[in-house]
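Q: What structure does this chain adopt?
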Amino acid sequence: MIVIPMAGASRRFAEAGYARPKYELPLDGRPVFDHAVGGFDALFASEPFLFVVAGAEAAAFVQARAAALGVVRAEVATLDRPTAGQAETVSLGLAKAGAAADTALTIFNIDTFRPGYRPPAGPLVEMDGWLEVFRGSGANWSYVRPAPGADPIALETAEKRPISDLCCTGLYHFARAADFEAALAAERAAPSMNELYVAPLYNHLIVRGLTIGYRLIERDEVVFCGTPEEYRGQGGSRP
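A:
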């Protein structure tokens, strides 16, 4: 299942003067939503998509755009309250969708583009979860600390704390929804941040002995559009 949490308030865009949520903003003749979801077009016919939104207006927009893009199995979970972070947004969406405990989850941001995405092959397929990363730096990313050697094994994850040069693209995979929920429960009991982010959840699985990997891609394979500056840098209009 591809899970797209999009129940945030688009605060930075609102403060910059934009009247519509960032996923509705036009970019190259299409809304940002189309660019973010369109990167998964190879999976439109084979994978269910779950969009987690805030309010009926957002739900109607998503249903219309998902149909226009050709997403065969699109479900929209509508939340009626703000959440404590992306991880809680995903969890509430899964509950509303009635996702089974053994459902594999691939979580991705609505403000990031991953053109031509294809699921990985090789050892990652057998792991309990993995994160997609590129080489970079800065305090605004989530990070993976890799194990020594050639195998793509994660020893630790961190949010907005550089522990390596492996920055997450915002694409997170869990082999089972039950593992995601167990890790979220553990994070609630001992929070590492003031919000419930997804990346730190993997630490709870690593402590349990589960195998978490990472997939390294080139920086130019992913496009970020989560701030007004990034949006305008991609050709987006000013408010």
